[in-house]
Amino acid sequence: MGSRYQYWLIVFGVLCGCSQFQGEPTPTEDAAATPTQEATEIVTPTTIPTVEATPEEAQSLTLWIPDVLMPTTSGEDVTNVLNEQIAAFATSENGVPVEVRRKRVRDAGGILQTLRSAREVAPNVVPDLTLMRREDLLTAAQAEAIIPLEGIVSSTTVGNLYPAALQLGQHDGQLYGLPYSLEVEHVIYNPEETPALTPRLSAYLEAEIPLLFPAQRDNSLSTVFLVQYVAAGGTVSAGGALELNEAALLQTLQFYEDALSDELITDTVLDYSRSLEYRPLLASGDYTTAVVSSQLYLELLDTGDDLPVGFIPTASGEALTALNSWMWVMSTTDPSRQVVVADFLDWMMETDRQAAYVRSLYMIPSQQSAVRQAYDGEYLAFISELLANPDLPPTNAANGAVARAMQTALVSVIAGELTAEEATQSVVDQVSG
Question: Which pTM value belongs to this model?
Answer without folding.
Answer: 0.85
